[in-house]
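W.,

You were right to be curious about this one. When I first looked at the sequence I had no strong expectations either way, so I just let the prediction run and decided to look at it fresh. Below is the sequence, 452 residues in total, followed by the output.
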Amino acid sequence: MSLKGLRDIIEIKDGSVSVKDKNAVRNIMDGLIYDAVFEPDDEKRKALFILIKEVAKACGAVPASIQGLYEEMGRHYPGFTVPAMNIRGLTYDTAKAVFRKAIEMNVGAMIFEIARSEIGYTKQRPIEYSTVVLAAAVREGFEGPVFIQGDHFQLVRKNYLSGPEPETNYVKGLIAEAVDAEFYNIDIDSSTLVDLDRPTTKEQQRPNFEKTAELAEHVRQLQPSGVDVSIGGEIGEIGGKNSNPDELRAYLDGFKEIFKGTKGLSKLSVQTGTSHGGVVLPDGSLAKVKIDFETLRTLSALARNDYGLSGCVQHGASTLPEDAFNMFPETETSEVHLATGFQNMIYDSRHLPADFKNEIYEYLKQECAKERKEGQTDEQFFYSTRKKGFGTTKKKWWDLPASVKEPIMKELEAKFGLLFGKLKVGGTKDIVKKSVKPAAVKKEINKGLLGL
């Protein structure tokens, strides 16, 4: 029904989409994106995704690289930290909540991202994720650059050690898929390859910076005309020891020596004491995290002043106490990654029906039984595995009634508002408009398959 309704309010001429009535498009987007995500035919589903993305661009929501803003940050820190948000479940509803708050607070500097691991267990391939985010932008009337990012495009150490070429080729294939899906921001994580048994810091970092350079060149070969993909690197595996200036210099100097390309990295992820998802105690509560903000301050200044990067990136931050977030702009951190906290709010909301949550947990008991560690309480087991409760059951989440989803989204919207305020990204629409000039890359619409 929604696709039929679209025919009357858009026009496709010479492969380009023009929108006759933006409000009418907004009003059918809920149904259109639902039909696309759950279309059983692979080819038709891809065609629907491309059509929706072309409609989004015509409505003014354009996939973009944050490179221009980060180059500006490299010259002069503008006083805010960009939130990069991983959305694992209820993605369309959650993205709508983000855009509503962004419009209210005039936010332009924000990133939607998904990691290599999340793509698998949430059953969201890059083209689906980017399309759902852009559909949410259209539905809420957000116009301007939309930054979509491949987070932790990571070389898995055990896979790499048993076969470097297949693992490298897998990540190269994922990068190609993501860039084709209009992810114009890619975080390469080969920090897993750092070899601490080598005698010098530079030699320890060598496998990391060599592989980052190889994959960054791959990104540059794939990026479409008019787009400079923003590429991030990483020196400290999250959850390990804290990063230091020697590691930063060894990595960035080594990268510069061997990277063959016009633009290198725009930011650098470092380790400062956090771990992904936080550390859960036997009663299900989270252990307090002590983050080393002075490390962030020192390394961000070094990355910016000596290498022209936007600064350093903090991972694993969403479960920090609220009073910690104002420290990121104070320490001139350029980007902060937020994921598990949003997932926790969904699962722990009093508005999520207990029988539905129990159904998901029963599924996890069966499917993730092998992941249960010895001595783990139920609370610890479910906390560590419930991220995997979004993928196979995705349609059940989407089909939850508005009476359930709307109050949960109100809670999330308030959280986004708090984070945007603490990270000082309110009012950043203007600096994004000045520094980022998105190129609308036209994708071919399969009119025949869609009956248009």
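Here's what jumped out at me. The mean pLDDT is 93. And, maybe more interesting for your project: The longest helix spans residues 201-222.

Coffee later to discuss?

I.
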